[in-house]
Design goal:
The chain has 436 residues and is of the alpha/beta class. It has 3 domains: 84 residues, LOR/SDH bifunctional enzyme, conserved domain (Alpha-Beta Plaits); 81 residues, conserved putative lor/sdh protein from methanococcus maripaludis s2 domain (conserved putative lor/sdh protein from methanococcus maripaludis s2 fold, Beta Barrel), CATH 2.40.420.10; 233 residues, putative lor/sdh protein like domains (Rossmann fold, 3-Layer(aba) Sandwich). 31% of the residues lie in helices and 22% in strands. It is built from 14 helices and 19 strands. The strands form 4 sheets. The chain has a 7-stranded mixed β-sheet, with no helix packed on it. Helix 6 runs parallel beside helix 10 and helix 7 packs across helix 8.
Length: 436
């Protein structure tokens, strides 16, 4: 290295003062500009950095007009930023993205609405919600949007001064639908001020993570939620039965750690099969070997329940005396079993209308504080789309891609564990007191 190449380079003298150093000329003039404000723990939660990244990723530019950094962890920070764009469409895309981080448009007015043209359709410029708490401004007052989840529209009732998030399919002609980006405020999720139970799990997903410690933290969380009267949701796939973990899930239900249960036709079918014939998909759960004629056992299980009329009748008559379905029915767990095109039977109680199944799932989620999703990719994604951001979500699967899909699709609060379903449920039950 030459002497003249010393590092770090010297800062040039600035006879006009530090203020002049910051007055950098923008390379060209942008035809569109807006000013946004940010407030909260925007530094340590990396919200400010994410806002800047989003502006640049979308091809815009920015200028930080004012910034105040909180002096201690309880004091919020604030920033005022000018945003620049080449086109009106680009500016709209930038602003909608920044609203997800809690950005507010300075001097913005009330929310804009247009009537729905027909039942089940909305104006082209509709606002699509995130799973974050959202407000709209009506007559100068910020109003909470009720029922916020991902990918809904906002319906405004101006007479009542109220706003509701609603699926497009449920919209009625003439209802006032929020359009554009004015008068909308999204409240971002910030990093916990104190140590958070799941914070250590939010690094990259890996099968080499310390599962025992993670499971202990999950057990601590759901114990606290149960004891405080909150609700715990389990979203489960049939691999729980295939792997022999059904008894651990049944124990969790029996002991009050499951209040809502989501799954498909297969979890019910194979649970009943395991109780009636000791097999799952025809494989003996004790020996792990296929049984003669076992391939028809799941159909025999469906037929047995259909003959008595329902899963509830199967419990009442003593046809089913143990297992996941038995414990869920005996302990009044809210179950939603959503079917698919590939289902055999299906088992009585399985909802074959997917729109109706989604409605039932949405209704059952009221009061849920923790969601544990084990070995079911499609039901996990479907549930994640319905959950508000404040619900803690744990996704467990042997496939790392399944674990990351939820976060990739917008459920950023989800944390993942790459491990076997049987190991996870066994250790979770034992952490909560199940005898070994």
């Amino acid at each position: 290295m030459n002497v003249q190449d010393e590092w770090p380079p010297a800062i040039p003298e600035n006879p006009k003062g530090d203020k002049e150093l910051m007055n950098v000329t923008r390379p060209h003039t942008y035809p569109f500009s807006e000013t946004i404000t940010l407030k909260g723990h925007i530094i340590d939660s990396l919200i400010l950095a994410r806002v800047m990244d989003a502006i640049m990723d979308l091809g815009g530019d920015f200028n930080v007009e004012e910034i105040y950094v909180g002096r201690h962890k309880q004091e919020p920070s604030r920033a005022r930023i000018s945003v620049f764009a080449e086109t009106e469409l680009q500016m709209r895309q930038i602003l909608v993205t920044l609203q997800q981080f809690g950005a507010q448009i300075l001097d913005g007015g009330d929310v804009r609405t247009e009537p729905a043209p027909i039942d089940g359709a909305v104006p082209d410029d509709f606002y699509s919600t995130t799973n974050l708490p959202t407000q709209v401004r009506l007559n100068g007052t910020w109003v909470d949007v009720q029922g916020t989840e991902m990918d809904l529209v906002i319906v405004v009732d101006r007479e009542r001064g109220a706003a509701f998030a609603r699926p497009i399919g449920d919209v009625k002609a003439g209802e006032q639908i929020v359009v554009g980006h004015e008068g909308i405020r999204v409240i971002p999720m910030e990093r916990e001020r104190e140590q958070e139970v799941f914070s250590f799990m939010r690094s990259a997903v890996s099968s080499e993570r310390p599962n025992a410690l993670a499971i202990a933290r999950v057990a601590q969380t759901i114990r606290e939620v149960r004891d405080a009267g909150g609700k715990i949701l389990f979203v489960v796939g049939p691999a729980i039965i295939h792997s022999g973990a059904g008894k651990y899930l049944a124990w969790l239900i029996h002991n009050g750690y499951v209040h809502v249960l989501f799954g498909g036709n297969a979890i019910a079918v194979h649970d009943v099969e395991s109780q009636l014939f000791g097999t799952s998909l025809g494989v003996d759960l004790q020996s792990g070997l296929p049984t003669p004629g076992g391939h028809r056992n799941h159909m025999r299980a469906i037929n047995a329940v259909r003959k008595v009329g329902s899963l509830e009748k199967a419990v009442e008559t003593g046809l089913i005396r143990s297992g996941v379905m038995y414990e869920a029915i005996r302990h009044n767990v809210r179950m939603v079993l959503a079917g698919s095109i590939r289902d055999d039977g299906p088992m009585p109680g399985v909802i074959t209308d997917t729109v109706e199944a989604q409605r039932k799932m949405r209704e059952a989620l009221e009061g849920v504080e923790v969601a544990i999703m084990v070995a079911t990719m499609l039901h996990s994604i479907a549930t994640g789309n319905l959950l508000p951001a404040y619900v803690k979500v744990v996704v467990v699967d042997i496939n790392p891609a399944t674990v990351t899909k939820l976060a990739d699709r917008g459920s950023f609060q989800a944390v993942g564990m790459v491990t076997d379903a049987e190991l996870f449920l066994r250790e979770l039950a034992e952490e909560l007191g199940m005898p070994k």
